[in-house]
Amino acid sequence: MTKPRRWALLTGAALAVSALLAGCSGGGSATTGTKSDEIDYALPANFTPNWILPIGTAAHLNTNNGSIAQSLYERLIAYDGSTGKIAWDKAGSVATAADFASDSKSVTITLGDRHWSDGEPITSRDVEFWFNLIKANAKDWGSYSEGKAPDNWTSFTAVDDTHFTITFDKAYNKDWMLANQLSYIIPLPQHAWDKTSASGTVTDADRTATGAKQVWKYLNTAAGKIADYDSDALWKTISGPYGLSSFTTAGKVQLTANPKYDGGEKASIKTVNLLPFTTADAETNALRSGAVDYGYINATDLDQEDSFTAKGYEVDPWTGWAITYMPYNFNNPDMGAVFQQLYARQAVQMSIDQKSLSKVVFNGTATSTYGPIPQAQESDYVSDVQKDNPYPFSTKKAAALLTSHGWTKQGGTMVCTDPGTSSSQCGEGVAEGTKFAMKVLSQSGSTVTDNMMSAIQSSLEKTGIGFSIKTAPVSSVLSQTPTCTADESSCDWDLSFFGTAGSWYFPAYPTGESLFSTGGSANFGSYSNKQVDALIDATTTSTDASAVQDYSAAVAKDLPVIWLPSPDYQISVKKSGLTGFDQDSLANFHPAQWKWSK
Predict the structure, then answer these.
(1) Coiled-coil region(s) at which residues (predicted)?
(2) How far apart are the C-alpha atoms of 99 and 284, rounded to whole Å?
């Protein structure tokens, strides 16, 4: 896994929202309009939209970039949690049906009677165009994970203009394939985009690997010219409920309802202004002045809720389909051997008081999470083992667990005094005199993060575990805590923390192949457990609904990371009268669903 890949995954999951908690100087400006046909929406602080192409590359996977692109180009199969339950949103999808073969080795998709904004029909050829581009440029695609899409798709066959079949390399769990693989597909206007230069002629260039690479280069080059988005005809052929009116390099975006849209999510509000802010404080000031219709406040500002409701706002926490955690570096040459001991990880987890952190640090806007499946929403995926918290908070029991395994508290810190591999000794590779002292490189610029780290430090100290904190911007945290081997100089990190507002946002089906499988693309700490690998494989291939729960239970007990409370995605502040939706726990926004009721 390369460093850019790691950055991309976190950008789409945590970076944009971690900026919500940063307090800096500066601000953005809002526009005002007729509230029956216009809305001003505040983007997360320090987020500058920088991509329009509905194919994300490594530097452009931010969830807000994706939401903007999907307003212009609808997904083949869109998943949405804004209905209160994460499910296939057929109203916002180009496909109307997905019929899997009896052997689960292929699927035939049916397209709706849909058209591009220039009147051309959306056909199987437009899906094939996306398929060919991704197949030829998989390693440059931001959502690529080796062995998964498109590697596990062996062929694309157009049956007719509205039906096509994708064949897989083996049988897969249908829910996983639909939600976590096929949902990536976005039909692209082949009749307008299948060329290798702006002056070129549209051909079938994508049908050869060389041609597909040239088309990819042309599209990505055009997408890099933000100043040209308004004028470039390339971005005028759209399928979604909105088109682009303006897109500035400063990050202000204006969307206008697409009058040619013929899908199921026709826009009710004509104009959507997406407003950038350099700080959360500047955005809060815009809310106070009434210049923003849909914004946010920090969890630490919840005691000021009445001041916003008095101005005609509603305050509504936005929960995320996410987990928050700190990965151990199992390959650290000094502490790696300690981290390899399950009892040691148990002692650490028993020293984390998630309920108190949720209450005190997050003002009650975080959910205690005890395993790899999000717990802020009801689902059938969480095992009873995870729900019941296998390692309840108790620094007294945590300390006793360490002393029963050969550790003695000296000067307030546990030290290995009985090395060896028996059940009462420190464990394989743990040398006599090793201090149980960890250091974390954590996100800077967030008061909430700082408060949480200080609370964890105090709690671990009671157990006898040292915990030193160093902070850096998220980009530096990512670059300084890479996946590594013990002989590399970059492997001197113990723990990494890259944002309080959700470490990892899942697709609809919350499996762990990227996070916790051996060699996974986002397995930052090099965790490896063959039993867990087999359970993860079962979640993607088994038709047994219990497979995900089995995985949930095993990973909750084995502790590949330090589980932490999962905060809400944001604390939304919305003008009264803005209706038509719940907030999407997948962290997307859907302006076509918004309505003014008065």
Answers:
(1) none
(2) 47
> Closest Cα to residue 175, out of 537, 588, 555, 545?
545
pLDDT greater than 50 at residue 92 = yes
Written as six digits, the tokens of 149 are: 């899409």
DSSP state for residue 69 in the 8-state scheme: H
Higher pLDDT, residue 185 or 570: 185
Per-residue confidence at 3, pLDDT binned at 50, 70, 90? very low
What is the C-alpha to C-alpha distance for residues 245 and 224, in angstroms, rounded to an integer?
18
Residues 6+ apart with CB under 8 A from 32: 40, 291
Give residue 535's identity as a one-letter amino acid code.
Answer: L
**What's the chain's Rg over C-alpha atoms?**
25
Identify whether the C-beta of residue 39 lies closer than 8 Å to the C-beta of residue 580.
no
Measure CA 204 to chain center: 34
pLDDT in tens, 509-546: 899 988 999 988 789 999 999 999 999 999 999 877 78
Q: Which of 472, 493, 466, 469 is nearest to 481 (CA)?
A: 493
What pLDDT score does 498 carry? 83
Sequence-distant (≥ 6) Cβ neighbours of residue 129 within 8 angstroms = 187, 188, 190, 193, 194, 206
Q: Does the structure show a pLDDT above 60 at 235? A: yes
For the chain, give the percent of residues with pLDDT over 90. 71
Q: Whole-prediction pTM value? A: 0.80
Buried/exposed 426-449: b ≥16 CB within 10 Å, e otherwise: bbeebeeebbbbbbbbbbebbebb
- Find the DSSP H helices in 280-394: 280-288, 305-309, 336-339, 342-350, 354-356, 384-387
Instruction: Report DSSP state, residue 341.
Output: -
Q: How far is CA 21 from CA 39, 45, 308, 499, in A?
A: 24, 8, 19, 9
Contact (Cβ atoms closer than 8 angstroms) between residue 461 and residue 353: no
Q: Which of 42-51, 322-331, 532-541, 559-568 has the lowest mean pLDDT?
A: 42-51
Kindly state the DSSP code that residue 122 receives in the 8-state scheme.
P
Residues in the chain: 598
pLDDT in tens, 473-492: 777 888 899 999 999 999 99
Digit-coded pLDDT (tens) for 68-77: 999 999 999 9
Please tell me the distance from the alpha carbon of residue 78 to that of residue 66, in angstroms, as a whole number. 12
Backbone angles phi, psi at 88, to 5 degrees: -65, 120
- The pLDDT score that the predictor gives to residue 5 is 24
- Nearest-angstrom CA–CA distance, 188 and 166: 17
